[in-house]
Structures are given as C-alpha cells and as structure tokens.
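Weekly puzzle thread! Below is a chain. First person to post its structure in token form gets bragging rights.
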Amino acid sequence: MKIEDQEGAPPAAAENALNGAPAGGQNPLRSSSEALDPMAKQPRVPQSARTTTTETPARTTRYRAPALEKGLDVLELLAAEKTPLNLSAISQRLGRSAGELFRMLQVLEFKGFITTSDSGAGYVLTNKLFALAMAQAPVRSLVETALPIMRALTQRIGQSCHIAVASEDQIVVITRIERPGDLGFSVRIGYRREIARATSGLVLFAYQTDEVRRTWLKRCRLKGEAADSFVARADDVRKRGHHEADSDFVRGIVDLSAPILRGDSAVAALTCPFVHSNPLVMEMADAVEHIRAAARQISKEIAHGDLP
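Winning reply:
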C-alpha cells in the first residue's frame, strides 16, 4: 500500500452542456500537500485579464494574437485554481462571453491540455504542459542523473524521496523514488506547493543570491515581518546545510531536505518524507547524512555534465 499526496454549439447550449460536462481524468498538478501560508493567497487572474490602460511599456507587445491570448488565459486560470471550473465560471473570471470561450475550450480539450474532472464539475488541466516542460534538456538531464542516486538512497535508508524545483511562486515535484516494500509514503510527481510553505521551497530559497531572493519574496508576496522571518529561517538552513521540518500534512512524518547545487545556487531540492516505521531501517539522524551525501553527488554529476 502506497500513500500519496494527489467548436460547434451556440453559446447557450454550450454553457448548459459544459457546465455539467462528463467526468474525465484528474489533473496531477493539483496541489494536495508536501511537508504554504502566512499569505492565504487569492486565485490568480491571468495577466492578460488584468491589463489596464496604465500598463507599463515593459509589459506591452508589438504584436497581438487575441485567440492565442484567450487560450493562454484559460490555461493560466485553471493552473491557479484548486477546484474545477465550468464554462460559466471561466467566463466570469476572465470577463469574456461563454460564446467566445466555448470553441477555445473545445480545442484545448481536443489537444489534451484540459479535461473534465472526475466529478464532472468543470475543467482541470491535464499533465500535458508538465510533460512538455519535463522534456526540456536541463530538466531531463537532472532527472536522468538523479534517478540512480535516488534509487540507491531509498535502498540504504528505507524511505521514499523526491526532487522539487522552483516554478514561479511554487515548488513542483519532478521525480520521485518510492521506498522498497509494501508500505510507505511518497509525494506524487507534479505536486505543487507555495515556496513559502514547503520544506523544499525553504531549501531552494536558502541557496539563492540576494537578488534572486528579493525576486522570489516579491513573487511570493512576502513582506515585512513575514519576509524577515522567512529569510532568517533560510539563513539557518544554509548554515546547517539541510532542513528538517515536521510535516503539516501527515502527523509523524518529518521532511528532510538538502540542496542540489549548480555553483553556489540551488537548482533543486532532494527531500525525504521520513516515516517512523517499525522497524526502522535507519535512524533519522543517520538518514540525514545519506540524504546530504546523495544531494552532493547529484550536484557533482550535473556540474560535470555542464563541462564541455
């Protein structure tokens, strides 16, 4: 047993049909939990839906592609939502008519970027965008390098592990290895959580330059005391070389995380949700050293791969 976090119709007819669309696959990028938020964040409205006449020149473009912008707005909106959205809800959020969105939703579904939720309550993203991102050479290289090292790590410590990278104001899990045996806890690939509330997020933030830190704090909407506290915790992590934190999702699990570095900056975090099972293959203090060693080995190998 493995425990895991987790064109053609008129406008009126379209809305009636799509608001009660049949069930489909769940989106593996929906967040559930990793072990975010002093900042209970509101749903993000896509940038193109937020533009006003005071938009700065830096955000304007010489060319416009209204249909493309419409489709991207839909994808950004669904990515920011925790629950499925039907045609009516998407129309309201984007300030567009159901008629102009109906064909766009049909095409996005046909191309495999969105699907209807299992409950039939509306649309969710599929994993197609995630798969496209994973196909990029740097990400693929990191995963290919890390997998054998992660596999050896799980065999030694008897625990699952995963790798997360930063994506805007969130972390996203790009690969994992489950612990040997029938029982264990693992975090699914594609799982997302805000940087400010994730163990991996704190480790990633800890090993960034001051300039990058400032950018991330703004992106995560951390200000004042909340920002100061987060920075102080990150400085402590950098001094220790890793981070340990009780999971706020599952009692009894402790997240152990170490940075994967390229130069002095973290490109990823190797994290183990440590389960105090009976019997233990290895005590947590010893497991930490193995996790740190594995992170160093991955860092060394990806650095070697960067050489001509």
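Puzzle host: Confirmed. Bonus trivia for everyone else. The beta strands are 2-4, 114-116, 123-125, 161-167, 170-177, 184-186, 192-194, 243-246, 253-262, 265-275.
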